[in-house]
Specification:
InterPro entries: DUF2284_metal-binding (IPR019271). It holds the Pfam family DUF2284. By secondary structure, the chain is an alpha+beta fold. Helices cover 33% and strands 15% of the residues. The protein is built from five helices and four strands. The longest helix has 25 residues. It starts with a helix and ends in a 6-residue tail after the last strand. 34% of the residues are buried.
């Protein structure tokens, strides 16, 4: 399966554009780790797929760069405003569903070791980290782009995607990192 076929399939799953690049084109910014440390989302130290458990900036960057390719994708939906928690949750839920479908597609067709980073891991209603138990779904657990310090706005620009956060629509972004011998 070549890059164009992969982009087409991921676009079909998401209902939006998808763009495949070399991981050498990923834009990392360690400042995003600061946002995690400030616990803006409430998950710092409470989720195995979030800092500090996921690793340092250098560790996650090196983990990502072990892959050859990244396919950047998004899920967009309408909101009334940024206080529209109901629709924001619906868009995020749809995005997480898309991320799961993309992971399945890659594992079945391209690369079983895919690393899919999207929005925070939400397979469990409460992460096992809270009770110091092992992760219940290590094969499905997913980190967010911020935890990997991937600069979403710069990647969206690089891919030619609209970075929608205008108060009327909202986009969630994801990136599937993979290796593929015949992707060219």
């Amino acid at each position: 399966m070549n890059i164009y076929e992969i982009e087409k399939k991921v676009s079909e799953i998401c209902g939006t554009n998808a763009k495949c690049l070399s991981t050498k084109e990923l834009v990392f910014n360690p400042v995003f780790r600061k946002y995690c440390e400030e616990n803006k989302c409430g998950m710092y130290g409470r989720n195995y797929m979030c800092p500090p458990d996921i690793g340092t900036f250098e560790e996650v960057k090196q983990r990502a760069l072990k892959y050859e390719y990244v396919i950047f994708y998004s899920t967009t939906g309408a909101i009334r405003d940024f206080d529209d928690k109901e629709n924001i949750k619906l868009i995020e839920s749809r995005h997480n569903g898309n991320a799961e479908k993309i992971t399945e597609f890659f594992r079945e067709n391209i690369d079983k070791t895919i690393l899919n980073v999207a929005s925070k891991c939400s397979y469990c209603s409460e992460c096992s980290k809270i009770t110091n138990s092992p992760c219940k779904h290590p094969d499905k657990a997913r980190a967010c782009l911020s935890a990997y310090c991937i600069d979403v706005s710069k990647m969206a620009e690089k891919c030619g995607f609209e970075f929608k956060s205008d108060g009327k629509s909202l986009s969630f972004f994801g990136a599937a990192l993979f290796c593929c011998d015949d992707a060219i």
